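Deliverable D2.4 — example input (structure tokens):
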């Protein structure tokens, strides 16, 4: 009891009950008893360290990402086989790269996409990772691609929408502008450009980070398009690809449909409670 009072630590008199078989606390040096006293509060109900908080946050993020069906074992491999089977060797040539991307349409709606860069084409697939079925795809000849813009997203001054991150926009007809009707039609598909951004699962592993790397995608697309421009130029069309670093504007203002859709990830194949869409 006297030793406990000298140490100045309340409750130290209970320590003999926790002594090791080799001897009681009276056999320990004073410095060792002080270390025990200082370390013990950390073993109790102390606040978690910043490292623990980061670990919990990362685990929660990974738990949410696991809802994406593309992460189910074997799903992505099967999807890639299915879309590669749709490549026309005579028209598209060989496959140069496969990418998991998100298409952002003119109303700011996100849509999960598998994208293939081939010798002659940019192929964009809408793939159902639940039913293992390709629902539709778009073919863009690379020698028609004339501009590749990349940068942060922007909206009109009076828009209520916002979007973080960067994107890549691919243009293939600089002489044609979207009509007024198309701009206000959320289902219009006649735009002479397409916009991509990174998929949410890019942070799940190194392999998915490579598959969703939008910067490497941009460079590979530029190289493939420039090569085809040189070998198969389009008559009456300027050859070469212009690469622009600029904001990608989305001319959407209210965007209630895109807000609800993007918040609930309706453009993705993922588990939603007991039902998958």
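Example output (designed residues):
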């Amino acid at each position: 009891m006297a030793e406990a009072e000298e140490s100045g630590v309340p409750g130290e008199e209970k320590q003999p009950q926790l002594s090791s078989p080799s001897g009681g606390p009276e056999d320990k040096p004073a410095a060792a008893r002080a270390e025990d006293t200082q370390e013990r509060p950390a073993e109790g109900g102390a606040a978690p360290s910043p490292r623990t908080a980061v670990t919990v946050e990362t685990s929660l993020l990974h738990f949410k990402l696991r809802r994406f069906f593309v992460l189910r074992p074997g799903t992505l491999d099967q999807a890639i086989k299915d879309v590669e089977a749709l490549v026309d060797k005579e028209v598209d040539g060989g496959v140069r790269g496969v990418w998991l991307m998100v298409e952002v349409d003119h109303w700011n709606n996100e849509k999960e996409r598998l994208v293939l860069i081939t010798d002659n084409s940019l192929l964009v697939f809408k793939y159902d990772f639940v039913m293992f079925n390709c629902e539709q795809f778009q073919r863009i000849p690379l020698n028609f691609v004339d501009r590749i813009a990349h940068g942060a997203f922007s909206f009109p001054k009076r828009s209520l929408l916002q979007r973080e991150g960067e994107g890549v926009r691919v243009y293939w007809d600089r002489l044609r502008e979207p009509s007024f009707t198309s701009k206000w039609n959320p289902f219009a598909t006649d735009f002479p450009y397409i916009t991509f951004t990174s998929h949410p699962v890019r942070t799940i592993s190194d392999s998915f980070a490579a598959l969703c790397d939008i910067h490497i995608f941009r460079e590979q697309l530029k190289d493939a398009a420039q090569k085809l421009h040189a070998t198969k130029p389009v008559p009456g069309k300027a050859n070469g690809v212009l690469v622009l670093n600029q904001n990608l504007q989305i001319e959407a203002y209210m965007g209630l449909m895109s807000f609800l859709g993007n918040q609930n990830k309706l453009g993705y194949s993922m588990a939603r409670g007991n039902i998958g869409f």
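Residues 1-28, 30-43 have pLDDT under 50 and may be disordered.
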